[in-house]
Amino acid sequence: MSEVARIADRLLAGDRTALARLISWAENGDPRFRAEHAVFYPRVGRARRIGITGPPGAGKSTLVNELARVLREQGKTVGILAVDPTSPISGGALLGDRIRMEGRTLDPGVFIRSMASRDSHGGLARAAVDACDAMDAFGFDVILLETVGVGQAEYDVVGAADSVLVVLCPGAGDGIQAMKAGLLEVADFLVVNKCDLPGADRLQNDLSEAVHVRFTKRAWTPPIVAVSASTEFGIVELLQEVEKHFTHLASSNLVDARREKRVQHVENVVNERLRIAIWRDHGWRAHVERELARSISPYEVAAGVLAELSAGLADARTERGVAKS
Ligand SMILES: Nc1nc2c(ncn2[C@@H]2O[C@H](COP(=O)(O)OP(=O)(O)O)[C@@H](O)[C@H]2O)c(=O)[nH]1
Ligand SMILES: [Mg+2]
User: Fold this and answer.
1) Who is most buried in 88, 158, 254, 323, counting CB within 10 A?
2) Taking the domains of the chain in order of start, what are their residue ranges?
3) How many whole angstroms from 99 Cα to the centroid of ligand 2?
């Protein structure tokens, strides 16, 4: 049996070292992950995936820690993936997250992993989904996926969760800011954290107005839930709300919703590998540099690249026996 298969088997047998190795492979885009994934994929799909996003400092890590604590009290095992946008070099926030979550790290029912954001388009979401799949197959009941809501890449990451909590807090950033940033669009819940601080009521009111305006036509209207993660207030109630969302999904379109996310994942994988193939493996960059040096316009250079790629794709279609349209 190959080493790859052994690691998949170890994962399914509950070996945390195998899980950690797999997540590293996912993070690095290591091709060994793919063979692995094929082996454990039949066991993927049992975990509940909860995405937690919001501006830096909103209290996401504190909340994740609290959610994990309550879920453990309820007898559930928890996998935590904290995706951080800081570069691996600066790394400070990663350490911060680890320390903040320290209360959970000695518990065998909890697995915590940080993952640095990658600058590649689509690579981050792909890596995060892969890591969640590994934790899912390992057998965690709930997966908490924390990401800073700063841009499309991060929205893509939480978009892969079943339920998305957008965490905001009074003061810095404010609700209006979040709406501009498109954070509201990904929300299944709006969590007003730090409700122990002044301004929380106002934020709640602003949000409920915004929700009223924007979400009238949706099947699920994001509830606004006030919590105070650092004082353990409202966490049980928040989880009850999340449960309602899952019931809502299960009664309507959970299978479809998850399949749609899988389609998105395949798209991410294809995009990432195409990008690498074009710009790294096949030396198109050198070609582009040469063309530009000959004073050919960027659009003409791009058209040339695209023409050659389309010819290659057309060949591939023929090989698959798909009629040309
Ligand atoms: N007053 C108050 N402070 C909080 C609360 N939750 C988190 N904090 C503090 O907010 C800061 C940022 O928290 P953190 O969890 O790191 O935020 P993240 O960047 O969103 O992950 C920390 O100093 C926390 O102690 C809360 O409910 N109330
Ligand atoms: Mg954090």
Assistant:
1) 158
2) 1-41, 44-252, 263-319
3) 10
Torsion sign over Cα 249, 78, 118, 276: negative
With 80 as the cut, is the pLDDT of residue 216 above it?
A: no
Q: How far apart are CA 76 and CA 109, in angstroms?
A: 8
Hey, what are 320's tokens? 């698959």
Tell me: pLDDT of 253 over 80: no
Please identify, by atom number, the ligand 1 atom nearest to the C-alpha of residue 54.
Answer: 20
How close is the Cα of 56 to the center of ligand 1, in Å? Answer: 9
Between 273 and 322, the more confident residue is 273
The two structure tokens encoding residue 20: 């950690």
Highest mean pLDDT, choosing among 41-45, 168-172, 250-254, 304-308:
41-45
> Can you tell me the mean pLDDT for 238-256?
87
Angle at the Cα of 6 (from 266 to 14), degrees rounded to 5? 85
Residue length of the chain: 325
DSSP-based three-state secondary structure for 324? coil
In this prediction, residue 94 has a pLDDT band, given cuts at 50, 70 and 90, of very low
- Output the CA 144–ligand 1 centroid distance in Å: 17
**Of the residues 62, 83, 95, which should be mutated to test ligand 1's pocket, given the most ligand atoms within 8 Å of the CB?**
62
Total-model pTM: 0.84
Is the CB of 196 inside a 6 Å radius of any atom of ligand 1?
yes
pLDDT of residue 240: 96
Q: What is the mean pLDDT of the chain?
A: 83
| pLDDT of res. 85 | 57
Q: Rounded CA gap, 158 and 125, in Å?
A: 8
For residue 100, which ligand has an atom nearest its CA? 1
Is 82 a pocket residue for ligand 1 (Cβ < 6 Å)?
Answer: no
Ligand 2 centroid, distance to 80 Cα (angstroms) = 12
Whether 56 lines ligand 1, by a CB cut-off of 6 Å, is yes
Q: Does domain 44-252 have CATH number 1.10.3720.10?
A: no
Residue 106: phi, psi to the nearest 5?
Answer: -90, -5
Ligand 1: residue whose CA is nearest its atom 12: 57
